[in-house]
Amino acid sequence: xxxxxxxxxxxAREVMTYGLTPESQGQGWxxxxxxxxxxxxxxxxxxxxxxxxxxxxxxxxxxxNTFTDNLxxxxxxxxxxxxxxxxxxxxxxxxxxxxxxxxxxxxQERWFEKLRKKMSRxxxxxxNGIPQRTVFGEGLFVCVTDxxxxxxxxxxxxxxxxxxxxxxxxxSRSYLKIEEAFHILDRCPKEGETVIxxxxxxxxxxHGALKRGAMVIAVDNGPLREPVKSHPKINHLQADALTYQxxxxxxxxxxxxxxxxxPEIIISMLLKWLSxxxxxxxxxxxxxxxxxxxxxxxxxxxxxKGLLAYCQTLYIRQLYHDREEITLMGEIKK
Length: 334
Ligand SMILES: C[S@@+](CC[C@H](N)C(=O)[O-])C[C@H]1O[C@@H](n2cnc3c(N)ncnc32)[C@H](O)[C@@H]1O
What we know:
- By secondary structure, the protein is of the alpha/beta class.
- The protein has 2 domains: 50-158, no CATH class; 175-332, Rossmann fold (3-Layer(aba) Sandwich), CATH 3.40.50.
- 27% of the residues lie in helices and 28% in strands.
- It has helices spanning 8-16, 64-79, 98-118, 120-124, 175-185, 204-210, 263-275, 293-301; strands at 21-26, 29-33, 51-54, 57-60, 88-93, 126-128, 137-146, 149-158, 194-198, 215-219, 234-237, 252-257, 279-287, 311-317, 325-332.
- The chain has a 7-stranded mixed sheet, sandwiched between helices. Strands 3, 4, 5, 6, 7 and 8 form a 6-stranded mixed sheet that branches. Strands 1-2 form a two-stranded antiparallel sheet.
- The longest helix has 21 residues, at 98-118.
- The site of S-adenosylmethionine (SAM) has 22 residues, from helix 6.
- S-adenosylmethionine binds next to helix 6.
């Protein structure tokens, strides 16, 4: 599993909560045993993992040439007599330093060149990427962990975190977080929908909803910035986001919340929204502060007191654009 640099220990502890045994770890990755049998997908995914490669093969060599030869052999053995007729995916990744990422790309290029020479039809059907689904996708996936080491797998899953492009019009960099959350949820607000944005100022998240044509009720005592401030579809309420309640019989479409408060306060507020079915979809950012992330996750995933009971879909992720934070995204049960 890959993760953000500096979060290896947290990820190792997180996988242990699913009965997996962390075996080793390095900069931006954790190797654990028995991923095939664990049930993290039903519980919102692994929060601190980015890409997950299953049943990895450890390849160690010093030269690029030997590595790509070995890898080609491993790949051909895996294919056996199987005939590839559909498009398939491959991806070389690395979470280490810039140089290692560059090295992974060199390996990818060289390996692909060799594949093209040996099996041009198979190479022609190749697509670069890791499937982002709830089940593992098949292909060739390589996680380069050092200049002489890589883990190779034929089954991988991307949990969707990715770097987003900044919109120069957006009032804040928080905008990147909401864009990433829309991408992971594979849903975003649209024309005719209503969004409540708690802790909205200066307006990055509201901007993400407004530019898609939704109406936004922005709740924050602080000021909004342009172009959100005077947008015709914004209603700015200078009120307390924690006690704000949606009035009306019908649930609103989206609840967004990026309030600077403790995880306990935000989770308890979110649970009220979910239990009253006051919204259909939600994106909520939790600032971890000094809290133990694993204790926060345990609270969120608690079968009785957590979010799962209310959610049709739930993703709990540390986003690419999150710092000491995690983000909850989901759709509530009808
Ligand atoms: C991280 S900022 C939000 C950034 C915003 N999502 C954006 O994209 O620009 C947190 C906001 O929460 C607001 N906030 C904190 N406590 C609040 C409360 N009890 N009620 C309303 N707003 C609150 C702060 O005023 C601040 O504007």
